[in-house]
Amino acid sequence: MNGEKNFQMEQSSDAKKVPKRVAFIKGRTVARVKKEDEEMVMTVPNLVVKEVIAFEMMIVVLTIISLVFNAPLEWIANPEHTPNPAKAPWYFLGLQELLHYFPPVVAGVILPTLAVIALIVIPYFRINLKREGLWKEDRKQTLVVLIATVGSVSVVLIFFEVYAMLVPTLVMTAFVLAPYFSKKEHGIVGWLGLRPLSWWIMTWFVINVVVLTAIGTLFRGPEWTWTWPWQEIY
Which residues contact 130 (CB under 8 A, 6 or more apart)? Predict the structure, then answer.
């Protein structure tokens, strides 16, 4: 070849198959790239009908539960009789449980503000837009970042003795690491390997909220001490 490069022209209109190409456009000619149309469904009636059915099923279930079980109401409010413990509504019990571990400023202001900001910002991250498995790219770098993050969070939780959040965090980390150390690409391990980082963050958040709410509802007695649910029976 005498050091000369052999350039070959390949005629193709598909930009995906031939990403590097030279296009010769004549006068009064519009360059057009073929694009596959994505599958699309209409909000009405596909989504709305499912939402209406789910809403009606929820009403039926709540009605049946209300007929079988009485609401756990207490006596009429009396300023001379303060309940012990004084519990917030169930949807605030997770926050009240955090007040048991952290200082009021941290549990009542900083942590809720960070949670709200995270829920607003995370959907705009690149990790959420790609929706690829956590271990698809840069496995070693991902492992280092994951261990460093979980280790830092665990140290803070151990320092404040927040074992109610430490245990779910470590359990979630074990599930996250399962696809990394396992060679299985099918089954539960394979399914976990396809979950993106945004899914893991949201799952961790939901599990912690459920655990803290359950502890505040079932296991907190007088003076906010740990009380087993069946202790009042005896």
Answer: 196
User: Amino acid identity, residue 73?
Assistant: L
Q: Which residues pair with 226 in a beta bridge?
A: 220
Do 91 and 185 fall within a single domain? yes
Give DSSP secondary structure letters for the chain.
-TT-----------TTT--S------TT-------PPPP---IIIIIHHHHHHHHHHHHHHHHHHHHHS-----PPP-TTS--SS-PPPGGGHHHHHHHHHS-HHIIIIIHHHHHHHHHHHGGGSHHHHH---TTSS-HHHHHHHHHHHHHHHHHHHHHTT-HHHHHHHHHHHHHHHHHHH----SHHHHHHHT--HHHHHHHHHHHHHHHHHHHHHHSB-GGG-B--TTGGG-
Q: In whole angstroms, how far apart are CA 95 and each of 12, 31, 209?
A: 60, 58, 9
Please indicate, yes or no, if residue 12 is contained in any of the structural domains.
no
- Is residue 150 within 8 Å of residue 169, measured between CB atoms? yes
Structure token pair of residue 50? 């499912």
Q: What angle do CA 107, 109, 114 make, to 5 degrees?
A: 90
Q: Is residue 6 part of a domain?
A: no
pTM of the shown model: 0.67
Residue 112 lies in a domain: yes
In a domain, 80, yes or no: no
Predicted confidence (pLDDT) per residue in 175-223, tens digit: 999 988 887 778 898 889 888 888 898 899 999 999 999 999 999 988 8
| Nearest residue to 146 via CA among 123, 192, 180 | 180
Please report which confidence band the pLDDT of residue 5 belongs to, taking 50, 70 and 90 as the band edges.
low
Structurally, how many domains does the chain consist of?
A: 2
